[in-house]
Design a protein that fits this description.
257 residues, alpha/beta, two-stranded parallel sheet, 9 strands, 51% helix, globular
Length: 257
């Protein structure tokens, strides 16, 4: 029996990872801010799949929260075999319309927490010669899209660079870059989604299945849908200035993920 730790586990992509991994027989460490939702989730997954589900209430925008999760990942007696760094959020508004405090809070969760938790997990995994880390980024990483896109670009570059450095160690690292997924993400950020074309929406459970398959194949970057693979191919050949204008407008209209 192996153990997976999932941050932001109570909703959206994190909840989909929890469902899939529990169904596959993995014990879980569930991490989020809302202790009540965590306990409800843990009970449901335990009752449905017979796995053990530990809960950690932690705010990854705070040093104490990051330290709590990092300590759990560093526990050699109760090792974590798979880390899903999923916690994240978006701020509604253009650059300079969002308060500096909110921007820094987002960077704390998207960058500092990902760095510290990936490092804690990878060090312990390298000692055992096995393990995996999935850092959830976004297709926004590949277009000029303010601080949100910049933070997700950092996640992609960091993950692929670390994966190269750990090659041959038995530790696999992968950046997961979804597009629009039907979750609570946009609602929490106060972003409308009525005008998003239906074909752009992804199903969280299918996304997770594709991501885990990519991790098993040893990929360091996963864009888990043919539609978004095609779009990102166009991004590579389109003029950067053009993409910057389009992504800025659509980002403010549709939201960052």
């Amino acid at each position: 029996m192996t153990t997976a730790l999932i941050t932001g586990s109570t909703a959206g992509i994190g909840a989909a990872f929890a469902r899939r991994l529990a169904a596959d027989g993995h014990d879980l460490v569930l991490v989020a801010r809302d202790g009540r939702r965590l306990r409800e989730q843990a009970t449901e997954l335990h009752d449905r799949h017979g796995i053990e589900a530990e809960v950690l209430s932690a705010d990854l925008a705070e040093d104490k929260g990051i330290e709590t999760v990092a300590d759990r990942l560093s526990d050699r007696k109760n090792p974590v075999d798979l880390l899903i760094n999923n916690a994240g959020f978006g701020n509604k508004g253009r650059y300079l319309e969002v308060s500096m405090a909110d921007e820094l809070r987002m960077l704390k969760v998207h960058c500092e927490a990902v760095l510290r938790l990936t490092s804690a997990a990878s060090e312990a995994m390298r000692e055992r010669g096995r393990g995996g880390v999935v850092n959830v980024a976004s297709v926004a990483a590949f277009v000029p899209r303010g601080t949100y896109g910049a933070s997700k670009a950092w996640v992609v570059q960091f993950t692929q660079g670390a994966a190269k450095d750990l090659a041959g160690s038995g530790v696999r690292l992968m950046a997961l870059c979804p597009g629009f997924v039907r979750t609570e993400f946009h609602e929490r950020a106060g972003m409308g989604t009525d005008n998003i074309p239906g074909w752009m929406w992804l199903d969280a459970d299918k996304l997770v299945a594709a991501a885990l398959a990519d991790l098993a194949r040893g990929k360091t970057l996963s864009i888990p849908d043919p539609r978004y693979k095609a779009l990102m191919g166009l991004v590579k050949v389109a003029p950067r200035g053009l993409m910057g204008g389009i992504s800025s407008k659509t980002g403010r209209k549709y939201g960052p993920q």
